[in-house]
Amino acid sequence: MKKIITTTKAPLPIGAYNQAILTGNTLYTSGQIALHPTTGELVQESIEAETKQVMENLKAVLYEAGMTFENVVKTSIFISDMKNFAKINEVYSNYFNEETAPARETVEVANLPKYVNVEISMIAII
């Protein structure tokens, strides 16, 4: 059985998807971009600010599911320019303990929704 996870502290879906699905003890988040959940505006002052908003959106979804970043076992990071990897990684790393950090892949893509620079999704377990 699956449970839909929804919070107003992260951007609400605009389409046929949900912020996250909890099935059994596993949470699958949809990819998050740097939309501010209250204003709906993109946060793009810098790649660091953009990445931080993405991580804060994911934090809110995890929290709604009763989890934290410690529960995350896998992340997928999609970026529009691999030259931004070091800056994205620096912000991303602030949310995890290096010794227990999740598995991850980082992929450069041609385009992302709203032409953002970074999108991240996660898998977490209770």
From TrEMBL:
GO terms for cellular component: cytosol. InterPro entries: RidA, RutC-like_sf, YjgF/YER057c/UK114. One of its GO terms (molecular function) is deaminase activity. Pfam families: Ribonuc_L-PSP (PF01042). Belongs to the RutC family. PANTHER family: 2-IMINOBUTANOATE/2-IMINOPROPANOATE DEAMINASE RIDA, PROTEIN HMF1-RELATED. This is Reactive intermediate/imine deaminase. It comes from Winogradskyella aurantia.
